[in-house]
From TrEMBL, chain A:
GO terms for cellular component: peroxisome. Residues 19-137 form the Acyl-coenzyme A oxidase N-terminal domain. It is found in: Peroxisome. This is Acyl-coenzyme A oxidase. Residues 140-247 form the Acyl-CoA oxidase/dehydrogenase middle domain. The keyword Acetylation applies. Belongs to the acyl-CoA oxidase family. Pfam families: ACOX (PF01756), ACOX_C_alpha1 (PF22924), Acyl-CoA_dh_M (PF02770), Acyl-CoA_ox_N (PF14749). Keywords: Acetylation, FAD, Fatty acid metabolism, Flavoprotein, Lipid metabolism, Oxidoreductase, Peroxisome, Phosphoprotein. Residues 484-661 form the Acyl-CoA oxidase C-terminal domain.
TrEMBL record, chain B:
Keywords: FAD, Fatty acid metabolism, Flavoprotein, Lipid metabolism, Oxidoreductase, Peroxisome. Its cofactor is FAD. It is found in: Peroxisome. It comes from the Eukaryota. The keyword Lipid metabolism applies. Residues 304-466 form the Acyl-CoA oxidase C-alpha1 domain. PANTHER family: ELECTRON TRANSPORT OXIDOREDUCTASE, PEROXISOMAL ACYL-COENZYME A OXIDASE 2. The keyword Oxidoreductase applies. GO terms for molecular function: 3alpha,7alpha,12alpha-trihydroxy-5beta-cholestanoyl-CoA 24-hydroxylase activity; acyl-CoA oxidase activity; FAD binding; fatty acid binding. The active site is at residue 451. The lineage of its organism: Eukaryota, Metazoa, Chordata, Craniata, Vertebrata. This is Acyl-coenzyme A oxidase. InterPro entries: ACOX_C_alpha1, Acyl-CoA_ox_N, Acyl-CoA_Oxase/DH_mid-dom_sf, Acyl-CoA_oxidase, Acyl-CoA_oxidase_C, AcylCo_DH-like_C, AcylCoA_DH/ox_N_sf, AcylCoA_DH/oxidase_NM_dom_sf.
Amino acid sequence: MAVTMNQDLRRERASASFNPELLTHILDGSPENTRRRREIENLILNDPDFKHEDLNFLTRSQRYEVAVRKSATLVKKIREFGISDPDEIMWFKKLHMVNFVEPVGLNFSMFVPTLLNQGTAAQKEKWLLSAKGLQIIGTYAQTELGHGTHLRGLETTATYDPETQEFILNSPTVTSIKWWPGGLGKTSNHAIVLAQLYTQGKCYGLHAFIVPLREIGTHKPLPGITVGDIGPKFGYDEMDNGYLKMDHFRIPRENMLMKYAQVKPDGTYVKPVSNKLTYGTMVFIRSFLVGEAARSLAKACTIAIRYSAVRHQSEIKPGEPEPQILDFQTQQYKLFPLLATAYAFHFVGAYMKETYHRINEDIGHGDLSELPELHALTAGLKAFTSWTTNAAIEACRMACGGHGYSHCSGLPNIYVTFTPTCTFEGENTVMMLQTARFLMKSYDQVHAGKLVCGMVSYLNDLPSQRIQPQQVAVWPTVVDIDSPHSLTEAYRLRAARLVEIAAKNLQTEVSHRKSKEVAWNLTSVDLVRASEAHCHYVTVKLFSEQLLKIQDKPIQAVLRNLCLLYALYGISQKAGDFLQENILTDTQVTQVHQRIKELLTVIRPDAVTLVDAFDFQDVSLGSVLGRYDGNVYENLFEWAKTSPLNKAEVHESFYKHLKPLQSKL
Amino acid sequence: MGSPARVSMGDAWSWRVHPDMESERRRPSFDVERLTNILDGGAENTALRRRVGASLGSLSPACLSLAESIIHSDPEFSLKENYFMSQNEHYEAGVKKKFHLQMLARRLGWSEGSRELRYAFRAVTGDLALGLHHIFSKSLQSLGSEEQIAKWAPLCDQFRIIATYAQTELGHGTYLQGLETEATYDADTQEFVMHSPTLTATKWWPGDLGRSATHALVLAQLICSGARRGMHAFIVPIRSLQDHSLLPGVTAGDIGPKMDFEYIDNGFLQLDHVRIPRENMLSRFAQVLPDGTYVKLGTAQSNYLSMVVVRVGLLLDEINPLLEKACVIAIRYSVIRRQSRLRPSDPEAKVLDYQTQQHKLFPQLAAAYAFHFTGTSLRDFFQESYGAILDRDFSLLPELHALSSGLKALISEFCTQGAELCRRACGGHGYSKLSGLPSLVSRVTASCTYEGENTVLYLQVARFLLKSYLQAQASAGSASKTSLPRSVAYLTAPDLARCPAQRAADFLRPGLYTRAWAHVAVRLIRDSAHQLQTQMQSGAEEHEAWNQTTVIHLQAAKAHCYYVTVKSFAEALQRLDKEPAIQQALQRLCDLFALHGILSAAGDFLHDGFLSGAQVDMVRTAYLDLLFLIRKDAISLTDAFDFTDQCLNSALGCYDGNVYERLFYWAQKSPTNTQGNPAYQKYLRPLLQSWRSKL
């Protein structure tokens, strides 16, 4: 491009203390990965089939249409470019799809995998090929209008009729209408429906059924099927999230996925052997979501930090030109801890992906021992990272002032696309409580004299004989605030203490009341706190361990500072916990505040290069403020001029409403 | 007691209140209608507000006689289609509603600034174009001379002109001295030459500027007799009063799509040597004489007065109601939504019975009440001091400026976080626009950056605090105590080194927690003063030292604002001693607000040993017990805000609780379901068939 780079950004990039390209390799996993990712991204960037109008100027229906068109070309292009590796498909989709949202996405992410995991050989043969080739487009219908995370509460029924060897699918109430599944409204012609199975007069709980929805050829809903779009949402305009109401709709017996449980032709129910394996899919999705949290936050940081280097405002010294807003301490204090968080979450995401693949091999060998901890950890980390990221993207947007509110900044879009992560795939509070259940179980085990292993092994060190909780002199409290390792210890102590407090409060409630469930509810705020502390510890630990793996000295130095900032900022935000548990002294907390401010100054010259290393293409950021070249204002003005409201100089509303207003009053 | 029909949506489901909702209202612990009256500032205000609402069509026809409405319901004010409109349609609807409202106001004799218009604004949820027209009016009243007011105010009131207020520029926001637009006085023609010298000088963001306004109050750097005189306000005609086309030298348009406010045409404006008469500079506080002599009548701050006026109005009329509505919707939905079981034998429990849900929602409800009472006392203070300021007595302006800036920052920050928490507390359905919550969130979040970016505002408060602190220090030794402004008088009050609480119940005493907040605010202000001093002693220049210590100034300002809010809330409740039941219910919210704040900033309270670890545990116990106590009043406390269903416009938050029926019905009306699916014909069908053709 012939366009010159903004002077401020040029200077920022020249002053970096490290080579961003090497950091990009680390983030991608290897130089080879970086190379291949860019190659694939360039295929898209250079392909005219993928061009489209700025989505911000389109209606919802037009955005849906663009996404469907992209989905359709995607299938052809992936075939044409010969991309088959799952990671590579992911790179492709991330740049190609709008917000990574595609109406036929659920076909590949849920319909096909569920079929693979839960279908019999015969079922796979019948459905798999046509689903992969999109002869049928499938989705996955689980949540209902009145029921979400609590699966046992789902109301849709599938009643077996041995006479015709069919299941009768029915939505008995308004609250039982399937609600939210992506691609269900307008796109899919099949769905895997989760329903309560009734056979021989008995309910056997939730099972999965393949239900045809629309007629092949006309795409019209089949008789007995009411299906449609659930209407406008905060974001995800491109997606036709749908509703589905079934009125005694019959499907053949073979449409129940029967790899595990079965219904025989005469209606006899055969129980599944083990269903721990279904954990696997959830673990995979949640660890993927942690990576997405890191990615979304990295995008937001890229935009906010680049813009803050270009934007000049106010004065630090009177008489001097307006400084870059990135030179204000308050702006650094807003943004750099978030930048550090983006890096921290990236390493957590990478760790989880790696662990998932390792454990998946173990499972292949029949070893399920690590699955419960991994399941508990992914639930909590999904909640922890998505809550943090949710707030952090908003903070980045607000750090861009008024312009952050305009869709030209790209930040509103990143936010509304990310925020459902807090409620889907397991609502966050419920997730935190799942982790808490595991923590309580581990705590009880230690109390019963058994050692626990993995990330919760710190519970083994809890002085269980301690009578007075205030006396923590036995704990090593010499925290060196300049050592990531020592800070990890501090977080470890905090986690241990908060787990212990929650456990004791739970016991107290149990001893006061009869029901364990009531006690659990009355301790749940403490339990969520304990889980958060646990996840925070894991994150600090993984980040600090990552530092040891880095060879390049300058990069190690800059990441070490980010790691320190992440850990210290967390302490300053939760200073109450560290003080109350005597992990840190007043003086140390004061030093923490001081050290944070020093780190802001140290990180400042590398800030722009640290976001450059995320290596986002401008199209992927979708932001005028975050452009790589920094030419913000010129492009902002150009962007506004193309807005639909500017198509005519005098809007028709003038003649209809304003002119009469002026003349009549 | 309030009649349910009063606020009903009036659709097929309204005839029956959901049993889960009904049970919540069966035995209220206080008279909800009385609380509504208190919030409205008197029963006659409540009645007037409802009458205005009724005249705007917020009632079903059946209830009109009941409310003694003046006219029949007006379909022009329906909000139902809001969620299905494009930006252009939103804008047109906003203009149309404004037009109808002005016609109605004229017919019924509602004057500018009247309670009736305020209530009308509330009833149509503020989705009106031409809001900046009123900011223009207020600015004219604050900054214009008597002659100027006499000339322009009638034109404005009668809508013979449509005006906006153009301050921020593409490259410049809150820092007014940085604005680049110039107004150069030409003594030969007695005109100002208005000019945008650079791209970054383009006016950017003003509402109604993009398509609607005929005139703009442009804030520009005054240059006369060769000297730069700082920012002043100029009335600039921008569009023809005949055909609405742009005048020569004027470039203007819409700035494009935003998170919300689609009905407002936020605009850009470039001026190319546009000439306006000398009389168009607003001259209450400064004048340019015909020969170019500059005469200053006010202080440097007096031009900020119009911003103070706007901020005070925003808190109660725009920002806090958005949090109130979010609370109404989320809490009502939480008694209808059932999820999992609390006891194995029970049916699924209402989600509001979960401690974690209460922990999410009740602090937001408490904050909404806290801000209502704090905003009211700020408005009272403003009304006391405004007259004096207009008469050029500026003695109260610094405190008014600090209070309004600080409370704007605190309230917008908390309302934004609170509304978003409410949205997420509704799980997946909170993500649907039909819940009403996404638009509340995306609307309230704008308030963190408009009318003064919050960090900048907090730092202005910090400067005021620092000044007051030094003043307090200086007078401490001397016999003649100069009195500090009311809101910072606590800087000289005797301080406690340790909190005296011994039991959790001690933390339910307003005197105790107000002093705790005062202690932390004073400590942070003192620390920030010391840090600044230390920086300067070690050789840093004052401005550099300030920048290097802003993080702690920010903390100090926030603590101060929280203290002010806790104190105003507690004081307002003391005045309710004739309503013991209401007082008790609200007292719990006040306690919760104070204690939730303490727990969120526990580090600050533990830091110097003011609270011990054991005391923080007591706070936590008291806090959790309050959640349980507030639970039974939750629906009554949200009903008391008295929002009509139309005004909430939420499938989840209706008074009758028939959530699911409405959500299903509304979704079916979405254009995606009523207007066919072109994408199928164009792309899906070929896609589905491409596979077959390959076989």
